[in-house]
């Protein structure tokens, strides 16, 4: 059985705390369910690496490229789905009924984009019932990619 996760995009706005996004289902633009590899050192790092260079803008002028810009939170959400959906299965879009864990997910990743500012990410551990991370894409990469590399190094030296 895989480590399941749910990714949400909620436009950053007053009254939405980073550590409460996992409860704000109706504010989410997408609910992207992934059936495998949902742990922070994989899906979390992949999400962070993808969104890190993307600038949130309002309006398109000149030539703008996918992966460099998103024309608002909805455009970012569409790019995330495009990045993660490669094959039949594995990644799905689901309606959620409001219960945490209703899809069997172990982690909920909530992204908070805002024009002209870095996109913040929170990670909620559904089973342990706590927010285990809140920060920028760069901070997530530093925390979880380094942890994975450190664990790999320990295995290689045994």
Report on this model:
- The structure is a single chain.
- The protein is of the alpha/beta class and 158 residues long.
- The chain has helices spanning 40-51, 73-84, 137-157; strands at 5-9, 31-34, 55-57, 69-71, 91-93, 107-114, 117-125, 130-136.
- Strands 5-2-1-6-7-8 form a 6-stranded mixed sheet. A two-stranded parallel sheet has the order 3-4.
- The two termini are 28 Å apart.
The computed structural class is alpha/beta
Poorly predicted runs of 5 or more residues: 153-157
Shape: globular
**Helix content class:** 25-40%
Count of distinct strands: 8
Q: Whole-number radius of gyration?
A: 16 Å
Distance between the termini: 28 Å
Q: Largest beta sheet, briefly?
A: 6 strands, mixed
Topology, element by element:
Layout: E1 5-9, E2 31-34, H1 40-51, E3 55-57, E4 69-71, H2 73-84, E5 91-93, E6 107-114, E7 117-125, E8 130-136, H3 137-157
Parallel strand pairs: 1-6, 3-4
Antiparallel strand pairs: 1-2, 2-5, 6-7, 7-8
Quick description:
The chain has helices spanning 40-51, 73-84, 137-157; strands at 5-9, 31-34, 55-57, 69-71, 91-93, 107-114, 117-125, 130-136.
List the defining traits of the structure above.
single chain; about 160 residues; alpha/beta; 6-stranded mixed beta sheet; two-stranded parallel ribbon; about 30% helix; disordered C terminus
């Amino acid at each position: 059985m895989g480590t399941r996760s749910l990714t949400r995009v909620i436009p950053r706005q007053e009254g939405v705390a980073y550590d409460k996004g996992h409860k704000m289902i109706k504010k989410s633009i997408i609910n992207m369910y992934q059936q495998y590899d949902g742990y922070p050192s994989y899906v979390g790092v992949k999400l962070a690496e993808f969104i890190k260079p993307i600038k949130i803008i309002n309006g398109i002028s000149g030539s703008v490229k996918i992966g460099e810009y998103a024309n608002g939170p909805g455009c970012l959400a569409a790019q995330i789905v495009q990045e993660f959906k490669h094959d039949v299965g594995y990644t799905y879009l689901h309606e959620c009924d409001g219960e945490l864990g209703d899809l069997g997910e172990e982690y909920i990743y909530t992204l908070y984009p805002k024009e002209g500012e870095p996109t913040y990410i929170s990670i909620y551990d559904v089973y342990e019932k706590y927010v285990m991370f809140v920060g920028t894409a760069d901070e997530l990469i530093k925390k979880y990619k380094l942890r994975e590399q450190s664990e790999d190094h320990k295995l290689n030296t045994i």
